[in-house]
Amino acid sequence: MAIVFISPKKRQRMFLLLITALLILSLIIMSFVTFFPEIKNKFQNVSTEGISQIPDVKINFSIIDSPAVENLELFQELQIEFSYIAQDENDNQVIGKIISSSKDGAKKTLEERGLKVSVLEEANLGRNNPFVSY
């Protein structure tokens, strides 16, 4: 008869390996037991009675020709505030603000008023403190 000595570290590793294997095996068995009915139900025949019916979609295009739609007003262009520095006919510097839909429109309006525009910039690009309520 031979005597076999197993070191305590090897015995400890074998014990941890055995416990880990048992835990993994029990997790596999529990998941199989838990999810097997769902997997089994997925492979059973599914009735297609309600799936194959496509609903009828009816669109009434006559509403587009109705007077309510014809009387709708178009959207107005977004008005932007511009600050300007210009010179009038007497070469006096004029500083002010003007509201227009575009930079070219603002410049054209100022020139129609007889002003020579030297600086035209968009004012109020955003709020100084967006976290303060109105």
From TrEMBL:
The chain crosses the membrane at residues 15-36. Keywords: Membrane, Transmembrane, Transmembrane helix. This is Uncharacterized protein.
